[in-house]
Amino acid sequence: MLFSSIPFLFWFLPCVLIFYFIAPRALKNTVLLLSSLFFYGWGEPEYLVWMVAAIVMGYVFGLLIERFRKKNKIAKLLLALSVSGSLVILGYFKYCDFFIGNFNAMTGLSVPMLRLTLPIGISFYTFQILSYTIDVYREEVAAQKNPVDLAAYVALFPQLIAGPIVRYSHIANQLKERSHSFEKTALGIRRFIIGLGKKIMIANLLGELCSIFRESNDKSIFFFWLYAVAYSLHIYFDFSGYSDMAIGLGKIFGFSFPENFNYPYISASITEFWQRWHISLGSWFRDYVYIPLGGNRVSVSRHIFNIFVVWMLTGFWHGASWNFIVWGLYFAFLLTIEKLWLLKKLKRNGMLSHVYVIILVIISFVIFDATGMGQAFSYVQAMFGAGGYPLISEEFLYYFRSYGVVILFALIGATPLPKKLWNRVSATPAGGKVVIFAEPLAISAMLVACTAYLVDGSYNPFLYFRF
Amino acid sequence: MKKYKDMICVAIVGLFFVSLTLAVWVLPSKEFSHSERRKLAQLPELSYGAVKDGSFITEFESYTQDQFPLRDTFRTVKAFLTYYMFRQPDNNGIYMEDGYAAKLEYPLNEKSVNHAADRFEYIYENFLADKNLNICFSIVPDKSYFLAKQNGYLCMDYEKLFTMMQERMNYAGYIDITGTLDITDYYKTDTHWRQEKLTDTAAKIAAGMGVTLSGKYTEKALDYPFYGVYYGQSSLPLPAETIYYLTNDILDGCKVTNHEKGIVGGIYDMDKALGRDPYEMFLSGPLSLITIENPNCKNDRELIVFRDSFGSSIVPLLVEGYSKVTLVDIRYLRADYLDKFIEFNDQDVLFLFSTLVLNNSETFT
């Protein structure tokens, strides 16, 4: 079920809120668990069993690892079994066909593809379970004795299908005890509806433009750039909008989820970009792959190796296709160059460094969105005039006119400017009084606008569902 | 202060959300949307199979969209946001120019145009080629022909379409009617043209067929507001229009037979005039096969018109020159069965199709 859908907003969510707030404290997690299972099963009931199996595995291994913590070898073996079990399930669904395809290409054999549908959110919940068992092994958290609480953590519908990747250590205490208040609810409502607006009124419209471009027979160099900019903004508003909705819902239910985005497009280096983009994934790889590999406290060559391993895996996490791996390695290359010598230079070149980041990130997302490496190369070539396309085309002119204002809104919205302006107005005595009523009215207006787009049945897929 | 602000926020947004949710839950379902001219999705039946194959979920989502309270108002809000906030030139492919709502018809679908030409050629070769018939064809431009290019909207390559059809239909004489038309000859909220503005166009077609028309009619207004198909699709509060129709003694004396239902009536179907699409008052709307018999005709010439819905309003203006006119819509009647219903001998034959249909001819049989 999509957050940005009428069944979720006006059927599922009100029911969950009613049951949740009338339930006694002891049953609140049960309500969340049952509603999360319903939420997950709504789209793909057959995959519920895999998620439940993953939860059961995580629960049992968590207890066993804790039980044998003092016998390090057994605990290590149990951890290895737990991690490999989770990765086998993920690998089976997500990567089998990739490996079969490459095996066939290398050997000339024709091993049949499995053509499995990827269970929604499997990459996210697998990583959450991994972090839980690893943290138990590291004695950073105690194993959860209550299966309902652990299952509620893994399956928690606000963050189940698209993150942020909430680590068990983040919310272990909140699972046991959390408070609900007007302040949190108001914050949650604001955050959720702003996220909904980002998704429906910006990301979806830009997604339409990207679809139009892909199907166009009237491409031009400018049209390639329009698409590349639109896609970069689309993926940001799509994913950060979804994270906002998740964080907002979490607040309403009394949780504090970690932030996932922090205006990445204002970054002055790729290093900074990745500190601001999909923060929960970056920190997951840092803590569970990069640091265990030795991080930066090793020789330069080993450090570079570590960076490439982490970014290859980051790319591979996003999808079982070579363009995702190349996308990850592309960032590994850029981050390595920055770490070795460019970072200091970038700090001295304010505007230029922003242009550098924007152009390289835009190119990265063209690779990311490609159907394969062939298309990725041809698109990037075309952007720089090497594809034999004209500079401008009739369709470019029309769609630039059609989506120019949306892109302008998106460009402004991708910076902290609107928030700063709002805070400045709120800080004045007169502004503070106006905001008391203006804010809820603006939020309600945004809900009306989002509902209007949903009722009209416009374009509404969610990008990160495939991860 | 902040505490009050949060409470007010929760109260206002919460009240709005609760009200809307209650309306979603409580209001009864509607069967039909008059503005969109379509049946609305109903609550699907819950079954294990429907849940498992995903059809329940898809249908439930359609149901929640279709049955949303104040659906038309929300669609209007969306249209306003599209046109006025995001300054997008079209909403769901419908654009407004000079008060006219028109559909983006882009690009030229050459495959479709060739398919249409193939089907016409099939009809010619199987039923017409071995007879010495007067065969003509004409193409009705859609509104975008007059509005799109000069106002910066995407549109099909009309010249290419006209050229393609002329090259493919070299067995028929081409009657170019584009010069007799302008945008004011069309309804503002509908796809179609206005019958009362078509006398020149009808005269041009008739001349092309070798027939002379007197073109004397009395103009009558339908006392019923007309909201065309683009009214619902644009979702904008466009004003109602009036349908005018032309009558004279010849038209009043004509007998129209609907061969689908075996019903005999007149040129104008007043029951349809008060129905969901008042444009269907012209020859009872989309029908596979109808004949118009004109007892007041002074000759025995007959005409067969292969046509789409644009033909419904202009063919009555050609009736004066013929004792019998047969209208065939090959979207609803298979072309290979034509000789089971029509006896081809020495009739005049006219192929009259709009650019919209030629560019979307998948339904031609």
Could you describe the 3D structure shown?
The complex is a heterodimer of chains A (467) and B (365). By secondary structure, chain A is mostly helical. Chain A folds into 2 domains: 6-178, no CATH class; 184-455, no CATH class. Chain A contains 20 helices and no strands. Chain A has helices at residues 6-22, 28-43, 48-67, 72-94, 96-107, 122-137, 147-155, 157-160, 168-176, 182-215, 221-252, 270-276, 279-290, 300-318, 322-348, 350-369, 373-383, 394-413, 417-427, 429-455. In chain A, helix 10 (182-215) packs across helix 20 (429-455) and helix 11 packs parallel to helix 18. The longest helix of chain A is centred in the middle third of the chain and has 34 residues, at 182-215. The model of chain A has no long low-confidence stretch (mean pLDDT 92). By secondary structure, chain B is α/β, with parallel strands linked by helices. The longest helix of chain B is centred in the N-terminal third of the chain and has 25 residues, at 2-26. The N and C termini of chain B lie far apart (71 Å). In chain B, helix 5 packs parallel to helix 7. Chain B has helices at residues 2-26, 48-52, 55-66, 71-85, 110-128, 144-147, 158-168, 199-209, 229-234, 249-253, 270-273, 309-314, 338-341, 355-358, and strands spanning 32-33, 38-39, 90-91, 94-97, 100-103, 134-140, 173-174, 218-221, 244-247, 255-258, 263-265, 289-293, 302-307, 324-328, 348-354. In chain B, 36% of the residues lie in helices and 17% in strands. Chain B folds into 3 domains: 1-29; 31-68, no CATH class; 100-363, no CATH class. The model of chain B has no long low-confidence stretch (mean pLDDT 93). Chain B is built from 14 helices and 15 strands. The chains are: A mainly alpha (467), B alpha/beta (365). Chains A and B meet through helix 1, helix 10, helix 18 and helix 20 of A and helix 1, helix 3 and helix 4 of B.
